[in-house]
Amino acid sequence: MRRPAWVLLIALLPAAACRPDRSKVRIGIAVEPGWYPAVRLAQAELQDLPIEWIADSTRNVQVAASALDYAEWLVAQRVALVVGHSGSRGSVAASTVYAPHGIVQVAPVATTRKLTSSGGRAFGLVPDDSVEGAYIVAFLDSALHARRVAILYHQDEFGIGIRDGVVGELNRRQIAVVDERYFTPEGATGPSVDVSVLLAAAMRSAPDVIVLGARIAETRDVAAYLRKHSLKIPVVCSDGSYVLPPDLKNRNLSDLEGFYIVRFWSPGRDSTATEFAEKFRRRFGYVPDQSEAFTYDAVKLVGAAVRAGARSPADFSRALGATGLTGSSYVGVGGTYRFINGRPREIRAEMAVVRGGALHSVSGTGPS
Amino acid sequence: MKLPLRIRFSIYALAGAGYLAGLIVTAAFVGLPALLRVDRSLAPLQSVFQAISARQRRVLDAVGSVEEILSTSGGSSARARPMLPLGERPASSLLSVYGQLLAPAAAKKLAIAEDELGAIESALGDVVARYELGDRKGAQAKLAEIRRAEDRSQHLYTEAMVLALNTGVAARRAFRQSMDTLAWSAAVWIVIGVLLIAAIGYDVNRHVWVPIRTLETRVRRTAAGEWTGPLHFPPGDELSALAAQFDALTEALRQRAGQHAHLATAGELLSGTAHELNNPLQAIRSMAELRVAADPESRDWTTVLAQVERASKLTRDLVQFVRPAAREVRRTSLNDVVKSAVELIEFQYRADGIGLELDLESVLPDVRVDAHEMAQVVVNLLGNAHAVLARTEGPKRVFVRTWTEGGLVHCRVRDTGPGISTEIRGRIFSPFFTTRQTGVGLGLTVSRNLVRGAGGDLVLDPADARGGASFTFSLPAAQAVAAVFNPVMNGQRVEASVDQSSPFHGMTILVVDDEDAIRGVLERYFRRDGATVVVAEGGNRAVEAIRREAIDVVLLDLRMPDLDGTEVYRIMRRERPELASRTIFLSGDATRVTEELDVPRNRVLVKPVELGELRRVVSDLAAGVRGQGPGTRDP
């Protein structure tokens, strides 16, 4: 070979070294910082796969404007699939960025039906809010015999979704909605709302059950008010109240004693869940909640698709859409996944009650 | 590539049609969808703005309602929330519905604004709750907080709308994309159009324009008499065929021009010869006439006079045929035309042993023609027959027949030659078609044109069992009128020549001729009738006599060695115009006088003129002189 060819080859070597590895598929992670232990746990089990993980755990992925920012960043990274976002509001906002680029979205715990009803390439690992609302009302009716229900919820996709699911089922069962109030959307910087004031006003309608479409902070505010005024009234919370901060102190639910909370996963649900919870606890020092469980499943589900040969957004969309249908089902720590219209048919809700600072099942798995 | 013009222009038309069709298809499949895409994108954008406005209005109305509630005197524990125009539930997120249609910056701004608005709506619930709980002060404070937030949210919404418009909403992207598509399409079509026009222009220039220009230039140069050789266009299209025809035509014209020049020279020679012959003939004739007048019983002089008459007619007809006068249409007997033509050519027939038989209908209506043109037609037909029979074995006869039928006067010339083959019968009248080595191929064409110009037609008769070629020309018969007195045809000549009156007594006649014999005869003839005769042997002497003598009538020869008769006449017109009008020309070439000097035909006598005719014309002028009185005769 003549000298110019050698020179050219040597000159191109650094460029080749800096070039992204085209053989690896890029997967974006867009979950709460507290959920990253679950991500890492799953990633550790997928090291043999040609996956390049794209993530920035310091960024907010739930508040709408921030979620949009982060989604654009991931699009710029040319990811084929994103695990996220954390909640309904962030997931729906980000989906407006991913959908035009054909990027597949796997949301671990987002319940809003808006995410998966548009026919795009989004998958949710838990049932949507219509299913959850119907399950809550079924519990109100059959277990608590409620006839006058007040509902408080967040003024965002998550809260409004729970509200619509619950009110729709209440109307169907002819159970009165005596009052409904809503809180500020999560992350909004506008005027604040005092949850206790809303609750006090709602209590004037003499409800016999309060339904909360809230997150853990507002749930705790309600509990504090009731405790302060020694009010004894059943409170039934959606799964949003079971999205717990990672620190051990805040994971203690003793202030919610007697509250009913819907959940889609529990450590003692079955041996797989128990095994995962124990593994998680051993590594990170605390028992995971459903957010971590479904985040873990989401990452592992994506890994399974990669192992099956998926590399492009279209591959992932086909592989996940076929899961449990034309393809084999995926069995995770949250259950067996078989997607219909982007939602799993096998994941069932469960009503739990807080006793002694921890959640205990009060019924079997409900309808999904 | 050489293609026929019709195919070439069809290709141009197809190319143009294809271009237009492509343009239409592009507009239909690119432009229209692009515009529809813009329309589809603009429609949701309008929905976004409407939804934002509606939501803002709803919140503002709710704030107003809350203010109204709080302004009422006395607190109320009644539920106030249903009084708010906020509806059963909060409005759905606009971001989830329209987020994909907005540019990222606008979407983020919309998300923040929606959160703000959601917070205000939620806070309104807080205010109402406080009011319901009787905490009016707390409600007022919260309302003030809402007011501040309301301004901020309104500002955020406005920013979102502006961003949606300015920083790339989907409509703008679609519009830009559409414009890009259209611009590219337009550019491509412009380039295609320019290339197409250039290609067609190049092709037209090369295969149509340049050949036409070349042909036009060549026609112009040929018309100017410049012969530059054949065009030699490559064969393949109509212009090449036209050029080939032009080359053939030019070659034929060139040959024709050569023959014309030859004929013109021959004509000039013939004209000169006739003139030279006319002078001795004039002397012989005049002498013979005087002898016959003196001795009417002299058969010898009568014979001389008859032969002179025959020779005179022959020279006159030859000159007229070679140098025809201006076209003169008049009633003529076709029989006379045939006879005059036969006289011109019969000596050739005799020389080659070809029989010429005339079968002329005795009572034939006149035709209105130029006799010379029709004579040319008959001579052409007879000449063709002669040419064929001269090189043919077997019987050599030509039959000329005239007859009338169906209001037409017909003349047929038929020969006993081999006839005209079927293959060439269709082309026999085509210009430059000839079967002879030396022929030009214009004889029949010209003949037919002459006959058609006279309102008739010349046709090749169908072949029949008798064989030979037969041509017939037919002319419409003229309306029957009384026969015009023709002194030549009706023997007026004799009567005029025996007129013995003396009308010239006291008159002075100037005889100008360079021939002594003619001068002498005319001098004696007019002196005998009492006239004073002044003679001049040339033009100069004539002018002197005109200036010196009181001349009444001038007999003026045309061709003279010193001063030409035309010059003498011009001098007379200038100096003695009244005498110019009494001048009689004696010449063998009457055409020249009438054409050059504009002299009436009745004052031009063609040599050899009979003395009776001359006497009659001079008598007419003499009568005019007497009527004018003596003053007119002074020089």
Explained architecture:
In chain A, the strands form four sheets. A seven-stranded mixed β-sheet of chain A has the order 7-6-8-9-10-15-16, with helices on both faces. In chain A, strands 2-1-3-4-5 form a five-stranded parallel β-sheet, sandwiched between helices. In chain A, strands 11-12 form a two-stranded antiparallel sheet. In chain A, strand 3, helix 4 (88-101) and strand 4 (104-107) form a beta-alpha-beta unit. Chain A folds into two domains: 8-125 and 272-344, Response regulator (Rossmann fold), CATH 3.40.50.2300; 129-264 and 349-361, Response regulator (Rossmann fold). Chain A has helices spanning 3-18, 36-44, 64-76, 88-101, 129-142, 157-172, 195-203, 216-228, 248-251, 271-284, 290-307, 313-322, and strands at residues 25-30, 51-55, 81-84, 104-107, 122-124, 148-154, 176-183, 209-213, 235-237, 260-263, 330-332, 335-337, 339-340, 343-344, 350-355, 358-361. Chain A has 368 residues and is α/β, with parallel strands linked by helices. Chain B is an alpha/beta fold and 635 residues long. Chain B folds into three domains: 5-178, no CATH class; 329-476, 2-Layer Sandwich (Heat Shock Protein 90), CATH 3.30.565; 492-633, Rossmann fold, CATH 3.40.50.2300. Helix content of chain B is 62%, strand content 10%. Chain B has 18 helices and twelve strands. Chain B has a five-stranded mixed β-sheet, with helices on one face. A five-stranded parallel β-sheet of chain B has the order 9-8-10-11-12, sandwiched between helices. In chain B, helix 1 (5-71) runs antiparallel to helix 5 and helix 5 runs parallel beside helix 6. Chain B is elongated and about 175 Å long. In chain B, 32% of the residues are buried.
